[in-house]
User: Which sequence fits this backbone?
């Protein structure tokens, strides 16, 4: 591609001249880059006929985690998000049903921080997206290991 570049001071970003940014992005996109990121419900697009119910449930859960992460990353303060859902299998033979829980790991842009309202919004977003999940059962941690919201699940 022959685009001059350098890393920022912290080594976390690749910098290119402003007049070459869009050209570089187009060239990368034509090669299917960048790869990675969250996987969402597109997992369901490749569902195999005859897949087990367990495999379908795992793909659904992974898709839901990815979609939630993408939604959280849409916040201007959040650089990257990772969501883990614990969705217990429910059974007719168990008296006490276990509630689902969620854990969210946030990587916040340098020099920025989340307000209490934003942390609460993330909890409510997760709760509204997962059946039977309550905002009180969502834990949120930032990249420095600071607990921003604690789950009340036992």
Assistant:
């Amino acid at each position: 591609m022959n685009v001059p570049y350098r890393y920022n001071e912290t080594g976390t970003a690749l910098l290119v001249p402003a007049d070459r940014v869009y050209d570089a992005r187009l060239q990368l996109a034509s090669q299917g880059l960048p790869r990675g990121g969250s996987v969402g419900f597109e997992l369901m697009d490749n569902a195999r006929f005859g897949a087990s119910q367990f495999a379908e449930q795992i793909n659904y859960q992974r898709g839901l985690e990815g979609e939630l992460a993408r939604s959280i990353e849409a916040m201007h303060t959040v650089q990257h998000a990772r969501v883990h859902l614990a969705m217990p299998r429910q059974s007719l033979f168990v008296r006490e049903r276990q509630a689902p829980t969620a854990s969210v790991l946030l990587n916040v842009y340098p020099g920025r921080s989340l307000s209490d309202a934003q942390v609460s919004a993330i909890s409510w977003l997760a709760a509204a997206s997962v059946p039977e999940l309550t905002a009180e059962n969502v834990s949120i941690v930032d990249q420095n290991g600071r607990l921003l919201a604690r789950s009340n699940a036992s």
